[in-house]
Amino acid sequence: MDFFNSFDVFLADERVIGVLPGVLGKVFYKNKKKIPVSVDLGYEKDWKEEIDKGFSCGLLWLSNGTCSVVKVGKFGMGESEIVENVVSAVSEVAEVVPRKWDGVQCMHLKFYDSLALKIYEKKSKKSLGE
């Protein structure tokens, strides 16, 4: 548990990521915020670039329910970086959810300790009066 609490982010080479659940245990995979991020540390790769990518990527956790979360920014990022990440995340999320855009009912933008701001809502096929 000390190892788990010692770091905010965990990176792991993509070649071993599949065996980590058995090695690290349930505590890492219960709290999805701490699941190790896969990076490519192959022989020909630029490790610094790969590690930087691992720290800056947005992770999407598709839940079994109707709501999923993707983190697209952090404190200290500039406005243009966050806007770019939000635009990129919206299009990427729509590509990976089941049924693409047909599977997306709505999207919200939320900051730490804020209310959610709706940025997309699927139009209903039926009006309320029908």
Label this structure with key terms.
two-stranded parallel ribbon, alpha+beta, 6 strands, 5 helices, 130 residues
3D structure, described in words:
- This protein is of the alpha+beta class.
- The protein has helices spanning 2-6, 20-24, 26-30, 47-56, 79-96; strands at 11-13, 37-39, 60-61, 69-70, 106-109, 117-121.
- It has two domains: 1-55, no CATH class; 58-130, no CATH class.
- It contains five helices and six strands, in the order αβααβαββαββ.
- The strands form three sheets. Strands 1-2 form a two-stranded parallel sheet. The protein has a two-stranded antiparallel sheet with strand order 3-4.
- The model has no long low-confidence stretch (mean pLDDT 80).
- It comes from Artemisia annua (Sweet wormwood).
- Pfam families: Ribosomal_L1 (PF00687).
- This is Ribosomal protein L1.
- Keywords: Ribonucleoprotein, Ribosomal protein.
Briefly summarize what is shown.
This protein has 130 residues and is of the alpha+beta class. The protein is built from five helices and six strands.
What spatial form do the alpha-carbon principal axes imply?
Answer: globular
Strand order of the largest sheet: 1-2
- The percent range for strand residues is 5-15%
Query: What's the story with the biggest beta sheet?
Result: 2 strands, parallel
Q: If you average the pLDDT, what whole number results?
A: 80
How are helices and strands ordered from N to C?
A: HEHHEHEEHEE
Q: Low-confidence stretches at least 5 residues in length (pLDDT < 50)?
A: none
The helix tally amounts to 5
Distance from first to last alpha carbon? 55 Å
Radius of gyration, whole Å: 18 Å
Q: Classify the helix fraction into a percent range.
A: 25-40%
Let me know the number of strands: 6
Number of domains: 2
Structural class by secondary-structure content: alpha+beta
GO molecular function: RNA binding
InterPro entries: eL8/uL1-like, Ribosomal_uL1-like, Ribosomal_uL1/biogenesis, Ribosomal_uL1_3-a/b-sand
GO cellular component, one term: ribosome
Pfam families: Ribosomal_L1
